[in-house]
């Protein structure tokens, strides 16, 4: 049976391709592909249908299928283009085979459906796998990139280091912060560490708890931790939550924190008459904007 | 009552999603930055409680638009272990997970209205409401 259907389809591939192209073209309007030029759309459709037919002929996965999916992924076309296209192909092919047959009963129809499904399914499976594989790859790369950004420690000058935190702090990141902080304090021989939370959107009890623990751990190894960059709205929520941050010094900005750090280490910024501000400018640039 | 939108909490990053959605809604209704931060923090606490204790649950937001006032209502629902002694968890400094124990009482202080229902072994439902001033 299967061989017979296949023969019908392959012998009449031109007609089926034609029907398919018409159907897919009608999907284009007001759909995902409306921003794609007609020429590219047509070429891709032709390539797509060739890939489908070559895969049916060869029975199962083929290299052209892999190349095609790679190309679509690179072009950034939606997965729905492929699933829609194959759905249309299934419909058109079943219709065509049925219209070419003389006696049609329910077993015949179910045989046709089964055969066509068997041709289309491996293609769908492989294309969807390629797509999700590429997404997973991107996500894992981004996770690595995020991790690299997550807890940097900057030695600004002798015995003063800064850890600027930007973005959401989750459990994993909190652990990294603690580790990097302690390791960095020892390595740079820092007396004062400034933790800057200007870029942390929300300070809830979990984040506060981790910061308190980190500060306490820094205190245990003999250094001082100053929490800087507390925005007014964050200060209010911390008070509302009833979190006690009284165990270590806090400052509103990195600039003030840095001045305090200098005081702790018995230093201060001195203007060199006239062409002073080299340190002041450095502080400004540290301050973010 | 306005439309309701929900966020499922299954993993830690869903907390961020819930927070983001709550903050967006709050901004739309016209909350100031301080109240936005309060709302985001409250959502963060509720969502984290779901993630920590019940593992899965839902946070739903509703915009309340009366004649004289507007507000956001959030409902955190889970079918986790429930809370045995509600008055105990509403005390400052009580925590079973080694945290600060400021979460629930903190949320109550951050919001204008707070209601908690819980049954041991069945789950917890917390409603919190904040009016635009």
Automatic annotation (TrEMBL), chain A:
GO molecular function, one term: oxygen binding
Xref: Pfam families: Rsbr_N, STAS
Keyword Oxidoreductase on entry: no
Keyword Phosphoprotein set for record: yes
Record-annotated STAS domain positions: 150-261
Gene that specifies this protein: RsbR
Protein name: Modulator protein RsbR
The organism of origin for this protein: Virgibacillus oceani
Signal peptide extent: none
Keywords: Phosphoprotein
Automatic annotation (TrEMBL), chain B:
One GO MF term: kinase activity
Recorded superkingdom: Bacteria
InterPro entries: HATPase_C_sf, HATPase_dom
Presence of keyword Signal: no
Residue span, Histidine kinase/HSP90-like ATPase domain: 35-128
One matching Pfam family: HATPase_c
Protein name: Serine/threonine-protein kinase RsbT
Protein species of origin: Virgibacillus oceani
Source lineage: Bacteria, Bacillati, Bacillota, Bacilli, Bacillales
């Amino acid at each position: 049976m299967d061989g017979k259907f296949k023969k019908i389809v392959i012998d009449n591939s031109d007609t089926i391709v034609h029907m398919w192209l018409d159907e897919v073209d009608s999907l284009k309007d007001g759909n995902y592909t409306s921003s794609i030029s007609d020429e590219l759309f047509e070429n891709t459709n032709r390539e797509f249908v060739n890939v489908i037919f070559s895969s049916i002929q060869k029975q199962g996965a083929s290299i052209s299928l892999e190349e095609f999916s790679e190309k679509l992924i690179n072009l950034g076309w939606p997965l729905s283009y492929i699933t829609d296209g194959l759905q249309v192909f299934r419909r058109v092919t079943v219709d065509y085979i049925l219209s070419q047959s003389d006696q049609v009963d329910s077993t015949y129809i179910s045989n046709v459906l089964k055969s066509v499904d068997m041709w289309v399914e491996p293609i769908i499976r492989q294309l969807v796998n390629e797509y999700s594989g590429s997404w997973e790859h991107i996500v894992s790369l981004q996770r690595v990139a995020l991790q690299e950004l997550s807890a940097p420690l900057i030695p600004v000058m002798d015995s003063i280091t800064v850890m600027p935190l930007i973005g959401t702090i989750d459990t994993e990141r909190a652990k990294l912060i603690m580790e990097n902080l302690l390791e960095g304090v020892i390595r740079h021989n820092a007396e004062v560490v400034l933790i800057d939370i200007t870029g942390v959107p929300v300070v809830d009890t979990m984040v506060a708890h981790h910061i308190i623990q980190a500060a306490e751990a820094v205190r245990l190894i003999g250094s001082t931790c100053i929490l800087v960059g507390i925005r007014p709205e964050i200060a209010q929520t911390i008070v509302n939550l009833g979190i006690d941050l009284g165990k270590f010094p806090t400052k509103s900005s990195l600039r003030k924190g840095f001045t305090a750090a200098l005081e702790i280490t018995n230093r201060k910024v001195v203007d060199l008459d006239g062409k002073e501000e080299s340190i002041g400018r450095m502080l400004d640039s540290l301050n973010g904007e | 009552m306005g439309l309701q939108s929900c966020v499922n909490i299954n993993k830690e990053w869903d907390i961020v999603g819930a927070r983001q959605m709550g903050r967006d809604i709050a901004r739309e209704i016209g909350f100031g930055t301080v109240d936005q931060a309060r709302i985001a923090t409250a959502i963060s606490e509720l969502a984290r409680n779901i993630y920590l204790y019940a593992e899965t649950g839902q946070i739903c937001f509703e915009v309340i638009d009366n004649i004289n006032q507007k507000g956001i209502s959030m409902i955190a629902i889970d079918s986790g272990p429930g809370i045995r002694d509600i008055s105990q968890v509403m005390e400052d400094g009580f925590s079973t997970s080694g945290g600060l124990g400021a979460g629930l009482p903190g949320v109550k202080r951050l919001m204008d209205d707070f209601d908690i229902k819980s049954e041991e072994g069945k789950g917890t439902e917390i409603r919190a409401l904040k009016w635009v001033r």
